[in-house]
Write a structure and sequence with these properties.
Elements lengths: L8 E4 L8 E4 L9 H5 L3 E5 L5 E5 L5 E7 L5 E3 L7 H6 L9 E2 L5 E2 L3 E4 L2 E4 L8 E2 L21 E9 L5 E10 L3 E2 L3 E2 L11 E5 L7 H4 L10 E7 L5 E7 L3 E5 L8 E2 L5 E2 L6 E5 L14 E2 L5 E11 L1
Parallel strand pairs: 1-2
Antiparallel strand pairs: 1-12, 3-4, 4-5, 5-6, 7-15, 8-11, 9-10, 12-13, 13-24, 14-23, 16-19, 17-18, 18-24, 19-22, 20-21
Length: 310
Amino acid sequence: MGVSAVPPLTIGVAMMSAVGLVWMLASRSLKRPTNYWDSLAVFRLKNNKGMEVQISSVGAAIMKLSVPDKRGQVADVVLGYDDASTYAIGEPVTYFGVVVGRCANRIAGAKFTLLGKEYKLLANNGPNALHGGALGLHKRVWEGQTGYPGHVRFTVTYTLASDRNELTCLITATTDTDTPINIAQHSYSCLVPGGYDHNYVLNNMGSQARFIVRKGIASSLPKLAATVRDPQSGRAMDVSTTAAGVQLYTGNFLGGEVIGKGGASYQKHDGFCLETQALPNSVNEPTFPSVIITPADKYRHETVYRFYNT
């Protein structure tokens, strides 16, 4: 993806990597004082095109993403919080900017059957399990939690190109037993408002997706999934991915009770997400592409966010 402005920023759990900067996503216990979370590292990636990204150790969250508009005015275009502690222990849970899983989106009835055994998950969305449950990756408890089988090792690598305003998020995972894996980056952009919560099958695959997608990979290289433009500022964003689908969610449940960066009160539709991922509830839908990863597999999900002006 070109030359990165700084070494790629890699997040690992119970593992180390020779590539870029690596750190472990804190301890497994959420029972820590606020100052503990706020003392964790926040990493900054910056290029010579005016783009800057801040990434928290908690939940691998994109806390800030600043890009220039057509007039050269730089602004932060993602929703989020000023401090790491709110990502870890803040209520209500908003998933601002975090990596979610082990299975993104909803699993109906908070259960699934794999190899003849039923697994019951922790329901956190009515009767359903949403984004890996209450202790999913967004809370940085990354192994053997919330009812899923096996132990999984995840790595998230963020790369900011030096010669263009393009951020790449690469997520990989390996497992010691068969398990469903479907990870998504859950940043809320504030380029334009909306009113949706829909999942779209990409690349015109339609019902043929289950014959094309393998181990969560729809294409070896990222393909364009969506383009968003803000006529007022001139900012535009292309989202490309190797995933089979994208969930368009427009902050339908924000209602002013969430206080974000700079004391902002986030209202309904103040931001939207383009969550590249597998199809919802795939683990219970035999006509959908499988999300089951075995010990012989390596899960790989790459998404590219390209910013420019029109």
